[in-house]
Specification:
alpha/beta; ABC transporter transmembrane region fold; Rossmann fold; 2 domains; 6-stranded mixed β-sheet; 20 helices; about 10% strand; binds adenosine-5'-triphosphate; nucleotide-binding; Type_1_exporter; Helicase; ATP binding
């Protein structure tokens, strides 16, 4: 989809109006620079004509000084204008980067399933960087240089009509030619951007999975695909660069032809006595000058063509709408809350449902243990309650309210989620625990660490809470990372806790700590524990066993444990016999 003119106008207005003073300054500087460009040759003409006068009375020095002042003024305006436009471009693109990032962070998880992070980085950084010139200069450069072009032609028409006519015809022909060749490069630059996005997407995914790739010995497979992506990028870039020689060499050729025409015309007019030497020089000078605006306009149009593909992609991204809509907002009380699933079915794709007709109810403060084979839909229940997705049918109630009427920000405050994969950042322990929330003071963090029995761990940190963690939580064991995730939830103090228990093996000491932490975390809260070990569900009031997304068994834990025919008691017996053969 290409953008319409009003959409371009809106885009420019959105990012330029907030810095209108700077845009105005740029317009003034740029306009003055153009005016000085036109005045300079006129002073030279006067200088030359005066210099060749037989009976010259006036001194040439003031004219020469004036020319110098005008030239210096033009150069200074040019530098100042370039600096100002650079700032406009950076500010506008940075604001756009922020808007894009903010927008992307609000999109559904289903969007992230379809787009690799590396590809999104390329959109936010690469594509937006292409728009710097569009925001900063495009409109003014095109309009200004058009004005300069017209100005040169009008002046020459007035001063010598033969020259005016010749220049106008020549400008039209050369302009059309330059414009045609400038379009040639656009598709090849689009291909370069796509090759970049593909390569970054590939790299990001493979670097993220480096541990698995090494352990499964898939390095050579990855390297081969890296080579294929890099090769494609190399050849598309090479092709684009070679084709880009055209828009550069055609204006050079026109420029050479123009210079010859200028010489011939000036020589003929001067030889025929139709113009003075100063005027002959002026004709030559204006023909030379004519090229600069033509080349700048063509460069701007070429740049705009390249930017168009980026604008379209950025605009498309900005218009991706979350399928889930925030409700008007609900204030949940900060105490344990009841949770209810009513006939909930859901699939990550619209066609294939992964959970079917789930119905269960947790009283406030009740703990539900969810069991089931891998892929049976346990984590999906957690994602639905956290409203990372909406059910395809049925509804989920929290404290009697349909989740869809709540704002997602309300839910994030009310529900704490500890997943199997704990995301840690290359930041201080404090920032990792508080999620960069500066309102949480150290005393609260230490109280949470004490509550969870992590003071010993804390005392071993070389710089206390200021200790920086390595990227991706490197240096921490899986158990420690899990404990940090518990501290996070503790600090959030939610009414409902969802605990997707880690299935990884932990050493007995960490496991004991984790067990204590779970007890403390669940105290006074409604909780859903997705359990991989039966020992975890001993604290559950009720048990739900899933099989292929359907409830196979659901009831009070004590009753199910007592019933010898229940699936749960069967599981208990199996584990027991495995432990004590
Ligand atoms: N993001 C996703 N996109 C598409 N399908 C998914 C996605 N996440 C899970 N699934 C599918 O949904 C089904 C249920 O997955 P879910 O993660 O809920 O299982 P689980 O019981 O939690 O498994 P595990 O015990 O291995 O964590 C599986 O068939 C899985 O392949």
């Amino acid at each position: 989809m290409q953008l319409s003119l009003p959409e371009y106008r809106r885009l420019l207005a959105t990012y330029l109006i907030p810095q209108w003073r700077r845009v105005l300054l740029f317009a003034l500087l740029f306009g003055t620079e153009l005016a000085l460009k036109l005045i300079g040759p006129q002073i030279l003409r006067v200088f030359l004509d005066d210099a060749t006068l037989a009976d010259r009375h006036t001194s040439l020095i003031p004219i020469a000084v004036l020319f110098l002042v005008v030239t210096l003024g033009q150069q200074s305006m040019g530098v100042w204008a370039a600096y100002t436009s650079e700032r406009i471009g950076w500010r506008a693109t940075n604001a756009l980067r922020i808007d894009l990032t903010r927008h992307l962070l609000q999109l559904d998880l289903s969007f992230y399933k379809e787009h690799l992070p590396g590809e999104l980085i390329e959109r936010i950084d690469g594509d937006v960087a292409m728009l710097g010139n569009f925001f900063a200069q495009f409109v003014l450069q095109v309009l200004g240089n058009l004005l300069l072009l017209v100005g040169i032609l009008v002046i020459t028409w007035f001063q010598e009509w033969h020259t005016g006519l010749a220049l106008t015809l020549f400008a039209l022909l050369a302009g059309m030619l330059i414009n045609v060749v400038s379009q040639v490069t656009v598709p090849s630059w689009q291909a370069v951007r796509q090759a970049n996005a593909d390569l970054y997407g590939f790299l990001e995914e493979r670097l993220g999975g480096t541990e698995d790739i090494r352990s499964s010995g898939a390095e050579s497979y990855v390297m081969r695909h890296f080579f294929l992506h890099a090769r494609r990028r190399f050849f598309t870039t090479l092709r684009a660069r070679l084709i880009s020689v055209l828009p550069w060499s055609v204006p050079q050729l026109c420029f050479a032809i123009g210079t010859v025409i200028a010489f011939l015309l000036a020589a003929w007019l001067y030889g025929a006595g139709m113009v003075s030497l100063g005027m002959a020089f002026l004709i030559y000078y204006y023909i030379q000058m004519l090229f600069l605006p033509m080349i700048i306009i063509s460069e701007q149009l070429e740049d705009f063509q390249k930017a168009r593909a980026s604008v379209t992609r950025v605009y498309d991204l900005l218009h991706v709408r979350s399928r889930m809509k925030d409700g008007p907002g609900v204030v949940f009380p900060s105490c344990a809350l009841p949770v209810e699933f009513v006939d909930v079915s859901f699939g990550y794709d619209d066609e294939v449902m992964v959970v079917h007709h789930l119905s269960f109810r947790l009283q406030a403060g009740e703990v539900l243990g969810v069991l089931g084979r891998t892929g049976s839909g346990k984590s999906t229940i957690a994602r639905l309650l956290f409203r990372l997705y909406d059910p395809a049918s049925g509804l989920i109630r929290l404290n009697g309210t349909d989740l869809r009427t709540a704002a997602r920000a309300d839910l994030r405050k009310t529900i704490g989620l500890v997943t199997q994969e704990v995301q840690l950042f290359e930041a201080s322990v404090r920032d990792n625990l508080t999620f960069f929330d500066r309102t949480i003071d150290d005393a609260r963090i230490l109280a949470a660490l004490t509550d969870l029995g992590m003071l010993r761990w804390y005392h071993h940190l070389p710089q206390g809470l200021d200790t920086r963690l390595a990227p991706n939580g490197g240096g921490l064991s899986a158990g420690e990372a899990q404990l940090l995730a518990f501290v996070r939830v503790f600090l959030k103090d939610p009414s409902v806790v969802i605990l997707d228990e880690p299935s990884s093996r932990l050493d007995p000491a960490t496991e004991r700590l984790l067990e204590q932490a779970i007890d403390k975390l669940l105290y006074g809260r409604t909780a859903i524990i997705i359990a991989h070990r039966l020992s975890t569900v001993k604290r559950a009031d009720s048990i739900l066993i899933l099989e292929e997304g359907r409830i196979r068994e659901y009831g009070a834990r004590i009753n199910l444990a007592r019933d010898p025919n229940s699936r749960f008691s069967h599981l208990l017996r199996t584990v027991h016999s495995e432990v004590q053969p």
